[in-house]
Amino acid sequence: MPFLSTTLTKCSDPLYFLFRLIIGFLFLQHGGQKLLGWFGGVPMNSLMWTAGTIEFVGGIALILGLFTKVVAAIAALEMLVAIVTFHLPQGWNPFIFPPGNGAELPLLYIAAFLILIINGGGKWSLEKVVLKKEVF
Q1: Which of 11, 17, 27, 40 suits a disulfide with 124, CB 3.0-4.6 Å?
Q2: Is the C-alpha dihedral spanning 89, 42, 51, 15 positive or negative?
Q3: Where are the alpha helices (DSSP H) in the chain?
Q4: 63-73, pLDDT tens digit by residue?
Protein backbone atom coordinates (compact mmCIF):
# COMPACT_ATOMS: atom_id res chain seq x y z
CA MET A 1 0.00 0.00 0.00
CA PRO A 2 2.38 2.68 -1.24
CA PHE A 3 -0.33 5.37 -1.12
CA LEU A 4 -0.87 4.89 2.60
CA SER A 5 2.86 4.84 3.31
CA THR A 6 3.43 8.01 1.28
CA THR A 7 0.49 9.80 2.89
CA LEU A 8 1.57 8.87 6.41
CA THR A 9 5.11 10.00 5.67
CA LYS A 10 3.85 13.38 4.43
CA CYS A 11 1.62 13.76 7.51
CA SER A 12 4.13 12.60 10.11
CA ASP A 13 5.14 16.09 11.30
CA PRO A 14 1.58 17.41 11.80
CA LEU A 15 0.45 14.13 13.38
CA TYR A 16 3.36 14.12 15.81
CA PHE A 17 2.67 17.77 16.64
CA LEU A 18 -0.98 16.85 17.33
CA PHE A 19 0.16 13.90 19.49
CA ARG A 20 2.42 16.17 21.55
CA LEU A 21 -0.38 18.75 21.95
CA ILE A 22 -2.93 16.16 23.09
CA ILE A 23 -0.57 14.58 25.62
CA GLY A 24 0.47 18.00 26.93
CA PHE A 25 -3.10 19.26 27.17
CA LEU A 26 -4.34 16.15 29.00
CA PHE A 27 -1.38 16.22 31.37
CA LEU A 28 -1.98 19.92 32.04
CA GLN A 29 -5.61 19.14 32.89
CA HIS A 30 -4.58 16.51 35.44
CA GLY A 31 -2.21 19.00 37.03
CA GLY A 32 -4.94 21.64 37.12
CA GLN A 33 -7.27 19.15 38.74
CA LYS A 34 -4.77 18.49 41.54
CA LEU A 35 -3.53 22.06 42.00
CA LEU A 36 -6.54 24.21 41.23
CA GLY A 37 -9.53 21.92 41.63
CA TRP A 38 -10.40 22.06 37.92
CA PHE A 39 -12.94 19.62 36.47
CA GLY A 40 -14.35 18.65 39.85
CA GLY A 41 -10.98 17.93 41.41
CA VAL A 42 -10.02 18.98 44.89
CA PRO A 43 -6.68 20.66 45.61
CA MET A 44 -4.53 18.02 47.29
CA ASN A 45 -1.83 17.54 49.94
CA SER A 46 1.94 17.82 49.53
CA LEU A 47 2.68 14.69 47.48
CA MET A 48 -0.26 15.36 45.19
CA TRP A 49 0.76 19.02 45.02
CA THR A 50 4.18 17.97 43.76
CA ALA A 51 2.59 15.67 41.19
CA GLY A 52 0.15 18.42 40.19
CA THR A 53 2.99 20.88 39.69
CA ILE A 54 4.91 18.44 37.50
CA GLU A 55 1.76 17.74 35.48
CA PHE A 56 0.67 21.38 35.14
CA VAL A 57 4.07 22.87 34.27
CA GLY A 58 5.08 19.79 32.28
CA GLY A 59 1.84 19.93 30.28
CA ILE A 60 2.52 23.56 29.34
CA ALA A 61 6.10 22.69 28.35
CA LEU A 62 4.92 19.78 26.20
CA ILE A 63 2.29 21.93 24.48
CA LEU A 64 4.92 24.53 23.66
CA GLY A 65 7.59 21.97 22.80
CA LEU A 66 10.11 23.21 25.37
CA PHE A 67 12.62 20.76 26.86
CA THR A 68 10.36 17.95 25.66
CA LYS A 69 12.74 15.07 26.30
CA VAL A 70 13.57 16.17 29.85
CA VAL A 71 9.95 16.97 30.72
CA ALA A 72 8.79 13.63 29.32
CA ALA A 73 11.45 11.77 31.33
CA ILE A 74 10.42 13.54 34.55
CA ALA A 75 6.74 12.92 33.79
CA ALA A 76 7.35 9.22 33.06
CA LEU A 77 9.19 8.89 36.37
CA GLU A 78 6.29 10.65 38.12
CA MET A 79 3.83 8.18 36.57
CA LEU A 80 5.98 5.27 37.73
CA VAL A 81 6.00 6.70 41.25
CA ALA A 82 2.20 7.12 41.06
CA ILE A 83 1.79 3.48 40.09
CA VAL A 84 4.04 2.23 42.88
CA THR A 85 2.82 4.54 45.66
CA PHE A 86 -0.86 4.92 44.83
CA HIS A 87 -2.16 2.31 42.40
CA LEU A 88 -0.37 -0.91 43.39
CA PRO A 89 -1.33 -0.64 47.09
CA GLN A 90 -4.98 -0.72 45.93
CA GLY A 91 -4.47 -4.30 44.81
CA TRP A 92 -3.09 -6.28 41.92
CA ASN A 93 -4.77 -9.12 40.11
CA PRO A 94 -2.25 -10.99 37.95
CA PHE A 95 -5.10 -12.56 35.95
CA ILE A 96 -6.51 -9.22 34.82
CA PHE A 97 -4.50 -6.81 32.74
CA PRO A 98 -4.60 -3.90 32.87
CA PRO A 99 -4.88 -4.11 36.62
CA GLY A 100 -8.14 -3.12 38.22
CA ASN A 101 -6.39 -0.57 40.41
CA GLY A 102 -6.52 2.45 38.08
CA ALA A 103 -2.97 2.08 36.76
CA GLU A 104 -4.09 2.01 33.12
CA LEU A 105 -3.82 5.79 32.59
CA PRO A 106 -0.35 6.13 34.13
CA LEU A 107 0.80 3.18 31.98
CA LEU A 108 -0.55 4.89 28.85
CA TYR A 109 1.17 8.11 29.85
CA ILE A 110 4.45 6.25 30.32
CA ALA A 111 4.13 4.82 26.80
CA ALA A 112 3.39 8.29 25.38
CA PHE A 113 6.29 9.83 27.31
CA LEU A 114 8.68 7.17 25.99
CA ILE A 115 7.73 8.22 22.45
CA LEU A 116 8.35 11.87 23.38
CA ILE A 117 11.70 11.01 25.01
CA ILE A 118 12.83 9.23 21.85
CA ASN A 119 11.56 11.81 19.33
CA GLY A 120 11.80 15.05 21.30
CA GLY A 121 9.63 18.04 20.51
CA GLY A 122 9.55 17.42 16.80
CA LYS A 123 9.82 19.82 13.89
CA TRP A 124 7.08 22.11 15.18
CA SER A 125 8.34 22.73 18.71
CA LEU A 126 9.13 26.15 20.11
CA GLU A 127 12.58 24.89 20.94
CA LYS A 128 13.30 24.00 17.29
CA VAL A 129 11.72 27.20 15.95
CA VAL A 130 13.53 29.58 18.32
CA LEU A 131 16.81 27.79 19.02
CA LYS A 132 16.99 25.81 15.74
CA LYS A 133 17.80 22.69 17.79
CA GLU A 134 16.74 20.71 20.82
CA VAL A 135 18.65 21.67 23.94
CA PHE A 136 18.65 18.18 25.44
Answers
A1: 17
A2: positive
A3: 2-10, 12-36, 46-64, 68-82, 104-119, 126-131
A4: 999 999 999 99
